[in-house]
Design goal:
The chain is an alpha+beta fold and 97 residues long. The protein has two helices and seven strands.
């Protein structure tokens, strides 16, 4: 797995090569707004996980997930971790671990 120094470097590289779509967290699923689809936990897998920590602030901590769906859609999900993590279902939380 390739290592990246910054979140933006990782996003740019992964979007250009293999993961062109953006996913957003909803309480019970992942959403790809551009394709107007929602993925439940049984509809996707996490291929790769990258963690980034801010140099000067814990507010900058985040996780980048490279995700593949059962129907072949590949995209990225960016989420904070720690106290700033999104409010999501336990099923989604377990899937993203």
């Amino acid at each position: 797995m390739k290592n990246y120094d910054t979140l933006s470097e990782a996003i740019n590289d992964l979007q250009a090569n293999e993961y062109p779509y953006d996913f957003n967290l909803k309480p019970e699923c992942l959403e790809c707004a551009s394709l107007k689809i929602e993925l439940r936990t049984e509809d996707f897998k996490v291929d790769k996980t990258y963690r980034f920590e801010g140099m000067s602030s814990t507010d900058d901590n985040c996780v980048l997930y490279a995700i593949s769906s059962k129907n072949g859609v590949k995209g990225l999900l960016v989420d904070a971790y720690g106290v700033y993590a999104e409010n999501i279902s336990e099923a989604i939380r377990k899937k993203l671990r």
